[in-house]
Amino acid sequence: MSKSALRRWLVVVLVTALMPVGCGRKTHCNPDGTPSAESFAAHGGKPSEEEAKQFALKLEKAVAAGNLAGANALVDWDTLLDFATDTTEGSSQFRDGFIKGAKQKIQTPASFMGQVSSLPAQGGAYKFIRCRDQDGQLHVLFRLLTAEGAVNYHDLVVLKYPDGVRAADIYTAGCGELLSQSMRHLYLSVLAADKPSFLSKENSHDVDLAKNMNKLQEMGDAVLREHNPSRAIAIYDALPNTIKGEKVFLLLRMKAVQSSEDDAEYRKVLVDFQKYHPDDPCLDLISIDHYFLTKQFKKELAAIDHIDSVVGGDPYLNILRANTYFAQGKIDQALRFARKASEAEKDMKFAYETELGIAVSAKKFSDIARLLSILERDFHDRVDTWLKNPSYAAFKASKEYAVWKKSRTSK
Tens digit of pLDDT for each residue in 190-216? Predict the structure, then answer.
């Protein structure tokens, strides 16, 4: 295995985490490969809620500034990689090489925090939601939003060290597992590819996975570097059936299909994910689009409600509810949920934009005037360009428009 190949595989797993295997050492891992409470405690202490909040605000500020180095400094990558490679399999030389490659890659724009730090420049956002105590550890919850409005959640387990508070691991809702688990899966897969004797010859899944690790690299390159979704999908289609259900392959296929904007193919990959991972924690988050595209609105709303319950409440989910009701022609409910989102989080631009889109469609002229004023005043949007769109013709012919226009010129 070349160093360049290892680095490219690391990029794939780190990026899909923005979207399990056994354990070798009893003191560090639970049976499902997740770090144990004792393991976290061995690496650092429990911060106070105020200390955790200050950590979260620092991370939010670093990401907002596009400061990758600053964001990475708030993650304890040593501990996270210790969890990822915590197994009796493989030599210390192999483990050290893997960790060295990972540490080099986390400093690049294509890395996990590199992708997070690039969000604001692309029109997305990374927002601290709350702190919460869970299983004896303090967690910090962040909402990740893309410019298109796609949502993910990062639940950071934070520890207190002599030099401050840092994240020791990160649960990504879009993958349904900890980042250390995603990297652990990669570590054991690369180990198997490098050391075939590690595999059971009777296990065709493991053998096929090891033989096709280069396909994971090729899919990652096609999606992330070449921006060629058709090639990525073709690579997936040619995989052995034994490994087509692997989450990392499915998530890359999903990212490729999203880039291709092929709704029919997108529905297929969502159905496949449900088939291969029916009990996966990330299924609700992934299924929302599927239910929307197939007009299963009751199921979509139930999935949104469940996510809301799991994360402890998030105003942004009211935007998803608003879109669901709007798709059903239930305008009043749609406007009500969009307004609830903006009332709960005054700086959530998506909420005002969603409400505006609904108001324009429903010809709610007073609401249109109010929302245009907010977006122009508070978010510095150039609303004059929007008014050139034919969908605003009825508004421009209304008395509400005349009053709104006059109020602008008088300022």
Answer: 777 666 665 555 456 767 777 787 888
